[in-house]
Every structure is written in structure tokens, then in C-alpha cells.
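re: that chain from earlier
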Amino acid sequence: MARTWTDEQKRVIAQNNSNLLVSAAAGSGKTAVMVERIIQRILDEKHPVDIDRIVVVTFTKAAAAQMKERIAAALSSVMLSEKNEKRVVLIRRQLALLENAVICTIDSFCNYILRNYFNTIDLDPSYRIGDEGELKLLMSDVADEVIEEAYSCGDKAFLEFVDGQLPAKSDKRLSEWIISLYTFSQSHPYPEEWLLQCKKWYDITTEDEFENSEVVKFTKEHVKNLLKAAIDEYKDVIEQLADVGGIDKYVPVFRNDLSLFEAAYAADSYGSLREKLQIKFERLANAPKDADEELKERAKELRDRQKKIVGKLSDELLEWSVEDNLAMIESMAPSAKAFIDLVLAFEKRYSERKNEDNILSFSDVEHLALRVLRREDGFTPAACELQSLYEEIYIDEYQDSNMVQELILTAISRGNNIFMVGDIKQSIYSFRQADPGIFLEKYRTYEENNPQADNVLICLHNNFRSRANILYAVNDIFRDIMHAGLGGVEYDTDAMLVPGKVFQPFENQGAEPVTPKGGSVELLLCRIPKDDEEEQEEKEKREYEAEAVAGRIRELTGDKPQMIWDDSLNNGDGGYRAAYYRDIVILLRSANSAGHVYAEVLNNAGIPAVCSTAYGYFGAPEIVEILNMLRVIDNPRQDIALAGALRSYFCYLTAQELAALKNSSKDTDLYTAVIEYRSHEGEEGFDTELSVKIDKFLDFVDAYRKKASYMPIHELIKDLIYDTEYIVYAASKKNGKRRMANLDMLVNKAAEYENTSLHGLFNFLRYIDKLQKYEVDMGEADTMSENDDVVRIMSIHKSKGLEFPIVFVPDMDKKYNLQDTTERVNFHVKFGVGLDMVDTSLRLRKKSFQKRAMAEGIRLNSIGEELRVLYVALTRAVEKLILVGGIADSKYDSSMERWERRAQTHGGDYGYVYTYSNYLDLAAPVFFKSVTSAVLELRTVTFGRGDGNVDSLDKMPETGTQGMDSHDVVTRDTLYEVYTGSEAQDGVASGSNSSDDGNDVDKNDDGNRELADIFRSRFDYQYPHELSTHLPGKFSVSELKHRDIDESQDEAVHIVQSERKKPVPEADGDTKKNMGAERGNAYHKIFELLDYNVNPDEDSVREFIHGLVLSGRMDAEYEKLVRAGKYVAFLNSRLGQRMKKAALSGRMYRERQFITGFPANRIRQEYEACDDIIMVQGIIDCCFEEEDGYVIVDYKTDHVEPDNAEKILKKRYTEQLRLYADALEQISDVKVKECIIYSVSVNREIKL
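^ sequence. v structure.
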């Protein structure tokens, strides 16, 4: 059946003699349109173009292969219906040429250019593309060489950079910075020029140069965008405050704020903008008692948020005056330039080393292809030749191009024959240095729908994938959050998705109950129990969400299944069917960290699920065991690898045997203990069976050490896997098919290694180590087929270009990863290299203006990318879209109120999106709008405790006339029972005799009764040591401590009050800290370093503390958080004198770490029936030795009243100190005679 094209698609297919940019929305059929356009070009009756005179550049090899297949299928289809013999001959010719047509990735195309024009740049044509691991290893070696040479030269600027920028006097990060900046520079067409350009910031000496720099221009634009958002929101709120029923008392203050914002917005220079933002906000008057509570809260929330934004801009981004910045640039210039020179030296040396081995990286291939095609005065003869050869150039996924690729492809064009297709809203590969700005520039400058123009823009809005309701929901969400400044495009009417696919109406002809097709777009909120809010691991939070997802999947595939449209039914005519597991996908921002949690929870719930990740291969147990064995074969004196090998399939030592083995030679390494074990024969405790195992293992290692000297590595690994029958062992384990595939992948990886310039087992292991270090992981082998009935779990990035009937998008509450904004050294394509300003003489570090502005730029780019990632995720769904997020129980009400306020807000989107850094805060407000174009449903799953004490919801939010509410309250421990309880009943055969006690057997059938009794006895079996299976392997003392401390009394909350009201901000970052906890850390740090010879007066103690800062032993911010008088009181106390005596005699031990075992019933009351050993670890603040035993001292900074101090602190910490005492006695064999709490708050010792 012939396909029907929309008017926009027809224009794309027909447009000729111009450059054409197609902005193709998700699901708009861009690939089909591109294929049709190519078919019409090569079969054009007047001017046919051979397929080998067309270039098609795709983003992936899979896309290139798919494009060839589609073109071949389209040509074959046309040929079947073609009657004209000449056209049949033409089609056959195109099919013959198709095999060698240039339909490939940009890397392959550049390689094609080099293979054909290598002579024009004096390139050895026998080059090969280096393996990624090989190149990583080479980069690491070259970086180390360059660093070593720089140290030997002793350049002052370089040494200042090292001393000032590297953390903790370690140069381990320097190699990583060099490689990172080099890699970053490769996305520029001329990397060396860009690196030299980075130096120019540090040549700025005048105010005009500073004012006209790119970084200052960006800063002013960014600040004004935030001010514009504030102005828009303020105007909206002032209108409501001044309206009838508003709050008149608030109006003057809000108008004054507005005038200050407008004055700052009008500033035209850095200096004036900085001055205008020194805003002192007036105090807000008290609202009348009968004031609209909702309006009052909205106004206060807006003002508080804007005060924080302005405060951050004023105190951080615009902290320094122009004069201060110029002075800072001057002081930073030598060390910054030294670092850039180091990267340039690395680039030169790395290039030389690659030339020696005649290898190229992919970036080399691109840059060399650029050299083939372009020179300073224009195009080369090679470029001109290719321009005459290629009639049209097609670029797929154009939004993910970079400037190198842009210059290459424009060099082979004639200026009017490039077809570019993409969607700026789906540009999600900035981590690969993709530059969406290239697409944006053309999007803004090309003429829309003008076929006569030289550069034409055509937009495809129709979505032929999803149901209308999903598209309306996506529009509703992104209309409020995606704008030109954030996301790269204004999500207006032109950007909105338009339903293009017509779904047939559903008619339920059977008796089975079903859920209608499509339905609402859901937001599934998981309320995290109060007890789990604090200090809860990310994995545990995800388990709650995963359990909610499991329950929802049960509903979608259960008694009333979700009905979905299937085009393959009824001989291709399509029809409805119930949803299968394979119709469902769970899309995660990062499947590497969260995917396996979801897979485990779903599998435990009886839902088959498979997680597909790009990482995890080197962590697979079978790969770990083989690599450990290879490390032992290479060098057995590696304790960790040897221990792993001894415990593995290749030796089978138990944990007890391994401990006994090491205990036999306590003062040696593990390998020595292994080879000396036989010498202990006849001694007490000698194990003959263990000795036999060890002898066999040593013989095994010796045999393979000999093989390693002459066998290729891949043959050695194959021998180790197959000849030892390890492959059979791996296959017998859970997921055996995948384990076997993983082992085969390792053999193949070793074969690839053999083709590199490296050789030998030692270098292979280094090669693998570098792959792991730089996260060049392949992901575990994928053994799943398309028809396997399993729920698929994958990353959003991997889902791009795919579609699924039912899509879950969980982890909506996860904060964006903004780690790049906090790095010591930052890079930005426009702003260069950003460093801290460091005064090494004063040991003072400040974030420079450039680095802060760069961090803001990176933050904005990251937020924009996150918006686009979310867009990709939501547009994968065909029938059903379910968003899932977790929220702490204590924050539930405030979050719901905030989202409801946001739903009623008009304007200020830039500020809101800038402030809130997770998907949930961006998407949730739409579910509270009074009018939406989509049907939305909010479901709240409240997890209670296992004892059945379930929190109830007193009030549910109203989602408006078009919304629906659904709220489920379940306990976590019974979640699966709630969703699977009906299964047992469904499994009972029709007509069977069901007894009241659930025994579905015929009571008159003795055989059945006997069989039922056997089954019941087996299935009802209770493991007698069930409690032991739930024991943690290890506890920290802090975990046990928090069990006995009420959260409101936690040390991290109530800390000794400081005289200073405003805490000192962190000098090395913008991250806000819990200043109470920081103050506690400061007191503990000084106690740890305290010199007991210091005079016990405040001046001497202050001088001592300041000396700790100057010597670099303590952070400068700690000095501001403590009071010297507290230490004076301590030194003059009786305890202080005792500790001084012990310290001066060398009998004091500070920060003593321990790890030891205790019976479980000693740790917690609920384990009273279990005496298994649990490891407990902790750190004792201080202990000192006197004649008759140890004294333990624990410093506590809890803020307590003097009258109740002893009672409160004893109650909180007695158990902790007793554990310390027991542990110290175990490891020292010396009695602990006394445990003392020293309360800093009340300057008193408290004996237990």
C-alpha cells in the first residue's frame, strides 16, 4: 500500500537546488522521508543521480546499515511494479552500486577520504586505527613522561601550578587533566590554535579587554535572563496581590524589589551590573490574618527564591570588582599558561608516538581529512574533485555534529546541495563534544518554507508514533520548561508535537475485562517512609520505586490488561491485543548504576526483566575470576588477585582455609604463605587437605606461566576457559548463557589486543586496567532476542530512535549530575581553561571569576541537555507513559504545595528551571494545572513499615477537571502480595474442590492427600536460621549510634553555637554544607592535632590553630568555626592534664581505627536469638594508657543544657562507648578502666 505523505514531507522530498535543513520532531518519519527523497533522486526521469554519487552520513554504523537496507527494499519494491524495461535496468544498476555507496558514519567517510588522498598530506597509507584501550594506555604513558620532564626542568610557573592546583599534594590528577583537556580540544577543528587561544584570557590587562571578553558577555546575558524571569514572576504576583482579595501590605515591598530588579536589568557593564545587584531587601510586612493563605505562600516562596538567586549572583559570580579580576588574572597567568604548555607538549609527544607505530585515533582521522580538504586560502584540489563528484550530501542526526565534521562536509559540497535532518530537542551527546549550536545557527537563519531561497528550513511537526494524549502531555510539560536559553529552542507552537497517527477505535468483543487502549499519562509518586529518609542509600530509595513499578506492571499485564495496537496482526492490517512484558521498557538516566536494582526487584516479583548497560562487563564474576587468574600467572605476588584466584573455581579454598593459610605466615605476603605452607607440616593446625589443594594450584600456575611465554594471549585465555572446563562451570551458574558470551567476548578482546602494537600478558593486563580506569567498558554480552517476553531496562540514550508501547521513566527525583561544575580545572569551548586563584604563600584558594562563570556556563549547558534527555525519554512511548518519582515523606506536603503554586504561575520559567535540578520538579506541576490538553493522572503509593503501620493521606491534590486522582496505600513488605494475591486463585482449575483452608485436593483421594502433604511440608519449610540470612556483614559504630539518637537531637543538627552568625563559605567550591556538622568536624580536627605543650590561654591557642592552617594541616574555614576558649577550658581541666601527661609520655593514641567482630545479639536486641559474628568498625577519638589500663575519651559537640548534659549524653552514647571499650580490649588485650565523654558545649567531662 502506497504511503501517504504530509504536505511538509512532500516539500522535503521535492526541495531542490538549495541547502535544506529539516527540523524533524520525534516520530515524524524523518528516515522514511530521507529514503524517499534519495529514491526519487536516483530514479528521476530527467536527471537521475547514481547512488554512488550521493553521500549519506549517519550517526551510527547500525543506522548506516539500516539506511542501506531501506533503500534496497524501496528499490526492490519499485522494481516489482515497474513495467518499463529501461527503468528496471536503471533500478538494477542502483542496486548493484548500492553495495559500494558512501552510506556510512563520519569516521568511515573520513577514513575513505584518507585512503584515497593520503598522498596529498604525506600520510603513510598503511596506517591503522588504534584500539581504544591501546590509545588510552599510550596517552597515560605519554602524560607521565611529559610530567616527569616538566618536574626535571623545574620551571617555576609549572611548580606553582602543581603546588596550587593539585589536591592533597598529589600529582595523580595532573595526568587526568592533561588527557581531558587534550581530548576536549580535539572537538575543535584546529586543536593547537584553540589551546593557544585559551592563553589569551590570561593576557587581559585593561578594563575594555575584560568587558569585551566572551566570558563577561555570557555573564551579563545569563544574569539578565535570571533578572528577566524574576521581573516576569514579580509582575504576575503583584497583579494578584493588588487585586481584590489580595494582600495590600505586600505590594509596596514587592514593587520596590521589582524596581531594583529592573534597574539591574538595565545595567550595561559588568561593573554597573555588579553594583546594582548589591540589593538590600526590605522586611516583608505581616499579612492580615484573613489573607489568602495560598497567595501568601506563593508570594513568600517567590521572594525567598529570588533572594537566594540574587544573593548567589552577588556573593559568588559577581563577587570581584573589575580591578580585582584583573589583578587575579595577572597572578594566575604564569601557572595557567604553564599548564596549557604542558598539554601542548603532550599533544606533540603523543602525535610522535602514534607516528612511530603508524596508528591513528578517530579524531586524528577527522583532523587529517580536514587537512586533505581545506587550507588557509580555501579548498584543496581534493575537495574540488569531491565537490564535482557528489551531487547531494545527506547528514542524519545533524544536531549531534561538531565543527570538525561541519567543515569537512561543507568542504565537499557545492554550496547548495546539503540535506541536513535532525531535532535540536533531541541533541543529547554533549559528552561526545557534539555542538547543537551549529544546528541552532542554521535553524535561526535559514528561510522557512521558501523554496526559492538558497538555504531553506522545513519543519516536520506530525508525530506518527504516539497516541495524541502522550503528545499533548509532552507539549504541556515542555511548554513551561524548554526555552531558547535552556534547551536551545523555544518550545512554542512551532515546536509542539502534532498527532499524525490514526489509531483504530477499540471494541472489546470478548468476555475478558480489559483496560482501554491508551489512557492517561501517569505520575506515580512513591512516598519514602520517614524512618528511611535520612542517610538512606540511593539503592534503597530506588528499590521503593522499583517495587511500585513492579506493581504497576502487574496491573498492566494482569486481569485487566492494557490493550495495545499491533500492526502485525490480521495479516498486516493491525489489531488490538493485551500487553506483554516485551511491550514494556524502563528508561533510566543512567542504567549503569540503577538498572540492576530494577532488574533484581522485578525478577524477585516474578516479572522477567533484563538490564542492558554499557558498563559492568569487567565486574561480571566470571571475568573477574579469569582476570585474577591471569594476574597470578603473570605475577603471583599480587595479594588481591591471588586471594581471588585461590577462592575461585581454580582452587576452591574456603574462607576459613584462606584465613588459616595466611595465619600460618602472618608477617609475609600471601604468595610466600602459599609456598611455605607445606613447611608447617606436623605443626598444630596443619591441614593436609589444604596442602594438597595448594600443591595442585601451584602446579597449575607453573604450567600456565610456561604457556604464557609462547602462546598468543587469546589462545592462552581460550585454553584457560575451555581446557579447564571453566566454561561448563560458568554455564551452570545463573544467567549461564550470558556468562558464556562474556567469556567469548574476553577471548575476542584479547584477539583485538594482539593486533595492536602491544604484546605479552603483562601489557595485556595493563591494557585491561586502563580500559577499566577510563571506563572504556563494553557492557555485558547481550544474549536477548527481540521476541523474548521480558521487560527491558535501558538508558535513555540507548533508547534514542526506538519506540515502545509502554514506557516507564523512573528516577525522576534524581538530581542532575553537575560534577563538572566543581572540578578543580574546568574547560569550556568559548571560555578556555578555568582555574582557582591560589596564593601559595598564604595557602589561600579562591574561585576566580572566569572559573565561576565557566561553571555557570557548564551548568546551563547541562540543564539544557537534561531537558533534551527528558524529551527523548517521554517521546519513546506509543500507548502508555508512566513517570515515576520518589519523595521523602516529610517533604511530601511541601512539594505538593510547591508544584501546585508553580502550576498557577505565569512566566519566570528560566529562573524556575535554573533553580530546580531534577525531572520531577519540572514535570510534576503540569499534573496540578486546572486546564491541560492531556488527560493526566496522579497516583501516590505510600510505603509503610513492615509492621503494617501505614501512613494515610488526609488530603489529595486536585488535578482539575481533566485530571484524575488515584492513590494507593501499601506496605513495602506486602507490596508483592497486593499485586500477586490473585494469582493463586487464577491457578485453580475450574471445577476443582476447594476447601476452606485452601487445600485444593479431593479429600477422598488418599494419594492426592499424601502428595499434598509432601508438597505442603516442603513448601512450608521454615529455615531454622532465617534470621542469619538478614544479618548485615558489617556495621559502623555511627550506624548503631544513630539508632539510639532521636533525629531532632542528632549531633549534626545541634552543634555548639559559634559567635560568628554567618558561616565562612567554602573557598574551594560553591556547594553548601551543613555548617553544624562542619563545626563539629572542626572541633574534632583540632582535638586530633592539639599540641599539649601549648600555653592554656586564648592567644596561644588561636596562634596554634592559625599555625595549623598555614602549615596546610587544616582547612582555613575550620579556623572560623571554633572558639579558642573551648580548648583553654579543656587544657585546664583535670582530664586535660591527664591527657597531657599521657601525650608527653607517648602513651596517647588519637583517631584509633578498629574493625572487630561481635556476636549479633550483642549488637541489637532484635538479634537476641542469633550469635553469628558481625563485623563492627569505628574510630575512637582518643584513648590513653595509664598504669592500670586504658581510658577512652570521646569528644561530643552536641548542644545541651548544663543541667541535663550528663543525663542526655549518657543516654545517647553509653552503648557507643561500651562498644569502643569492648573493641579496644579485644585488639589490645589491655583492660579499659574508664570511658569519658568530654562535652565541648558545657566544658565538662562525663564519666560513664
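The two ends are 88 Å apart (CA to CA).
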